[in-house]
Structure formats: structure tokens, C-alpha cells
């Protein structure tokens, strides 16, 4: 007999730029049904309902009052996350929120408190570390393919939001900048592979003080930059591994890699952690060539296609946790990542190493199969 899939009814809060990627991504999971979309601007909610064939639309209060909604997917801009996540949790709904968890550690702590107080579960982006690439790297580290992990590098290049996002103000205001906007993908990959960070030393600055907006359908022509757009940081992990990071919206071109992890026996090179899948390459001491590792999980989507931009794996992780499964993209993991990233600014302002107060367990690995022998490229 065919197995019946549990149906999880989802309400989306925030009908902006990333909505389509969630609407399309969630549709690929048979256990999900998006039953409502809400926005502070009702015309956006209605447009989204029409475009993605979602039965009900309205504002945030109507979403929380809708008893058919079990999971709220919160894709409002970062400065609204804390308030709207806490309200949804307090209404008894499970919540999956986009990154960053909040714009400050103080706000994020309130969110974490709300999540641990009640019975509703909170999941948070990024979820790309659940994809095959970071999971394969994790498996390689855990099975000793590079020996003991000594160090890592992570380089965030410009996302050039002003060239493609109609309202890129959030990228250059509180909760934005390369550190909080893109940094979570890189930190999630590193913390998943190497464990929690113990201390951070960073230097940060604003590059160009204003940005000309050239995106199609733009709602503003120029932005004043309010947060650092160029940051260099050294992260010391509790394990003793040391990572060198550069996170910048001012690097217009580079040949730097995305993420590499260095061990006593060799090096792992990871693809863009903003995507779920892609080649993870290994070169051990004595090897003449890099070798591509066989993925240890199924792929989320076809590599180098727009399928990598779809979202939904993190919501599936949360839905699985509501049924007693492992909760990998959990709020403690997201809180630690935010704590690490916000400490860049603390380190810059106070001119010192910052010892992290938070920590987290490494999420349970997803490896479905033992890592097969590396295959030659
Ligand atoms: N756009 C992307 O490419 C992208 C990629 C990955 C993650 N994200 C994350 O997704 C989130 C949303 O990004 P976006 O680019 O879609 O933003 P956006 O500005 O395009 O859209 C946000 C929407 O939320 C609505 N909104 C604001 N406050 C609200 C409230 N209190 N209640 C209900 N609706 C409210 C706005 O009216 C708007 O329609 C952010 O956390 C961002 O970091 C975006």
C-alpha cells in the first residue's frame, strides 16, 4: 500500500522578492500545502495568492488567526523577524524564519526564549547546509579524510543586490551587509563541519558610503550604507581549528575560493554554500589531482540551475522535527551563528578578541550512505 504523506499546512508571511522561491520549492514536497499568504501590504498578498494559486490571503493577524495554518514561513525583512516570530510562536504555530534570526543578539535571545518557553518549534535559515555539498564535506571531515581539521577559509563575494533587488535597502541597513546577509550560509557550513566558534577577532568598515540602485522595478534610486560592507575576521573554533574569513560587498571580482577546509592530511574545497549541491573536492597529501567526492545524500536540485535557488529543505527539517525527527536547522544553531557574526562589529568597535558566550551542538549529519571512494573528475 502506498504510504500516506502527512500534510503540513503552511502560511507564508511576507510576499516579497523571495516568495516565489519558497512557493515553488515548497510545492516540490508532497507533504506541504501552502494555504495562506500574508503581507503588511494587502495588495502584495493578493498578487502572490493569484500568482501562486494560494487559497487565502490577508494580513499577519489573519494568518495567526487561521486555525488551518500549522507552520508559518516568515520571509519578512530581518528587522521584522523578532517581533513577528515571537507573535507566531505565542499563537501556537511552528515557525520557520529566514536568516538572520534577528538583527541583534539581544533580539535573538528574546526569540530563543520564546522558542524554548512554548511547545511550538522554531526553525531558521540558512538551510543550504542540509544539502548534499556541506553534508558530504561534513562526512569527509568526520571520517578523517583530511586528518585533523586545522583551519579553513571562507570568502563571501559581493551579492550586488542593488543590481537585481527592487528594494535593496535591507541589504545595507540593520540585519544586512555581507556579514549578516551572506555570512550565515558560510558560518552554517563551517559550524556544521567544525563545530562551534570560541572566539572572533575582526576588522570591519563601510566601503562606498552610498550605492546607486540599477535593478529593474526599483523603488529607490540610491541607498545610504548603514552597516559595514567589508569585513575580515579570524575565527577560532572550540576544536582549535582557525578560519580566515573575508565578507564583502565591495569585492567586485576575485579568484578566491568560497570555502576550503584544511586538515593534517589534506584539503577539502566546497562549492558556494548559498546553494544546496555542487562538487566537493578533496586533495590529500601525495595526490596529484583533486578528486570529486560522491555526494552522501540525494541532491536537492540540478547543479548550476535555478533549482538551487528554490527553498524548502529547512521547512521540511522543521516539519520532520514536529514529528519527532532530528531538528538540524534549530534556533540554538541559528543563534550561535548570529552571535558569531554580530561579534565582528563588537571586535571592531572594542579592538579586541571577542570570546563567544553562546555555543551549539553540531547538527546531526544527514549522510544516507557511507562516503564512496572519491571519483576522479
Ligand atoms: N531576496 C533574496 O534573494 C533572499 C535570499 C535568501 C534569503 N532572503 C531572506 O528573505 C527575507 C525576505 O527577503 P526579500 O528579499 O523577500 O524581502 P522583500 O523586501 O522583497 O520582501 C519582504 C516582504 O515582507 C513584507 N513585510 C514587511 N514587514 C512585514 C510584517 N510585519 N508583516 C507582514 N509582512 C511584512 C513587505 O511588505 C514585503 O512584501 C529576508 O530575511 C532575507 O534575508 C532573501
How would you describe what is shown here?
By secondary structure, the protein is of the alpha/beta class. The chain folds into 2 domains: 8-124, 3-Layer(aba) Sandwich (Rossmann fold); 129-301 and 331-355, Dihydrodipicolinate Reductase, domain 2, CATH 3.30.360.10. Helix content is 28%, strand content 22%. The chain is built from 10 helices and 17 strands. The strands form 3 sheets. Strands 16-15-14-13-7-12-11-8-17 form a 9-stranded mixed β-sheet. Strands 3-2-1-4-5-6 form a 6-stranded parallel β-sheet, with helices on both faces. Strands 9-10 form a two-stranded antiparallel sheet. Strand 13 and strand 14 (266-270) form a beta hairpin. The longest helix is centred in the last third of the chain and has 20 residues, at 331-350. The site of nicotinamide-adenine-dinucleotide has 23 residues, from loops.
CATH class of the largest domain: Alpha Beta
What is the number of E strands?
A: 17
Integer average pLDDT = 94
Helix count from the secondary structure assignment: 10
Relevant terms:
Dihydrodipicolinate Reductase, domain 2; binds nicotinamide-adenine-dinucleotide; alpha/beta; six-stranded parallel sheet; nine-stranded mixed sheet; about 30% helix; 17 strands; Rossmann fold; globular
Concise synopsis of the structure shown:
Helices cover 28% and strands 22% of the residues. By secondary structure, it is of the alpha/beta class.
Helix and strand topology:
Elements (H helix, E strand, L loop, with lengths): L7 E6 L5 H9 L4 E7 L3 H11 L3 E3 L1 H6 L5 E4 L6 H10 L3 E4 L7 H13 L4 E3 L7 H11 L6 E8 L20 H5 L1 H12 L2 E9 L4 E3 L9 E3 L5 E8 L4 E7 L10 E5 L2 E5 L10 E4 L6 E2 L20 H10 L8 H20 L3 E2 L22
Parallel strand pairs: 1-2, 1-4, 2-3, 4-5, 5-6, 7-12
Antiparallel strand pairs: 7-13, 8-11, 8-17, 9-10, 11-12, 13-14, 14-15, 15-16
Helix pairs in contact: 4-5, 5-10, 6-8, 8-10
Amino acid at each position: 500500500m502506498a504510504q500516506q504523506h502527512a500534510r503540513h499546512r503552511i502560511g507564508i508571511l511576507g510576499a516579497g522578492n523571495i516568495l516565489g522561491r519558497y512557493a515553488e520549492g515548497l510545492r516540490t514536497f508532497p507533504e506541504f500545502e501552502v494555504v495562506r499568504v500574508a503581507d503588511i501590504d494587502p495588495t502584495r498578498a493578493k498578487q502572490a495568492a493569484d500568482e501562486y494559486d494560494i487559497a487565502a490571503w490577508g494580513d499577519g493577524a489573519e494568518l495567526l488567526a487561521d486555525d488551518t495554518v500549522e507552520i508559518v514561513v516568515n520571509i519578512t525583512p530581518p528587522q521584522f523577524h523578532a517581533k513577528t516570530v515571537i507573535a507566531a510562536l505565542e499563537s501556537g504555530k511552528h515557525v520557520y524564519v529566514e536568516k538572520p534570526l534577528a538583527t541583534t543578539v539581544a533580539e535573538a535571545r528574546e526569540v530563543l526564549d520564546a522558542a524554548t518557553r512554548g511547545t511550538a518549534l522554531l526553525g531558521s535559515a540558512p538551510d543550504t547546509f542540509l544539502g548534499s555539498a556541506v553534508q558530504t564535506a561534513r562526512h569527509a571531515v568526520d571520517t578523517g579524510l583530511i586528518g585533523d581539521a586545522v583551519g579553513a577559509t571562507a570568502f563571501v563575494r559581493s551579492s550586488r543586490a542593488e543590481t537585481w533587488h527592487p528594494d535593496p535597502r535591507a541589504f545595507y541597513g540593520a540585519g544586512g551587509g555581507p556579514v549578516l546577509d551572506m555570512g550565515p550560509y558560510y558560518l552554517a557550513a563551517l559550524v556544521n563541519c567544525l563545530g562551534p566558534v570560541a572566539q572572533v577577532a575582526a576588522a570591519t568598515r563601510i566601503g562606498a558610503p552610498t550605492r546607486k540602485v540599477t535593478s529593474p522595478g526599483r523603488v529607490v534610486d540610491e541607498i545610504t550604507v548603514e552597516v559595514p560592507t567589508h569585513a575580515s575576521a579570524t575565527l577560532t573554533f572550540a576544536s582549535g581549528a582557525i578560519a580566515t574569513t573575508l565578507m564583502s560587498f565591495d569585492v567586485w571580482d576575485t579568484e578566491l575560493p568560497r570555502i576550503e577546509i584544511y586538515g593534517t592530511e589534506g584539503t577539502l574545497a566546497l562549492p558556494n554554500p548559498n546553494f544546496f549541491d555542487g562538487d566537493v573536492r578533496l586533495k590529500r597529501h601525495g595526490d596529484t589531482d583533486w578528486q570529486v567526492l560522491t555526494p552522501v545524500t540525494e541532491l536537492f536540485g540540478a547543479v548550476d540551475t535555478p533549482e538551487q535557488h528554490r527553498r524548502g529543505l529547512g521547512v521540511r527539517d522543521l516539519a520532520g522535527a514536529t514529528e519527532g525527527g532530528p531538528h538540524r536547522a534549530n534556533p540554538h544553531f541559528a543563534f550561535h551563528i548570529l552571535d558569531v557574526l554580530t561579534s565582528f562589529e563588537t571586535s571592531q568597535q572594542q579592538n579586541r578578541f571577542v570570546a563567544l558566550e553562546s555555543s551549539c551542538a553540531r547538527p546531526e549529519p544527514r549522510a544516507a550512505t557511507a562516503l564512496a571512494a572519491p571519483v576522479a573528475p
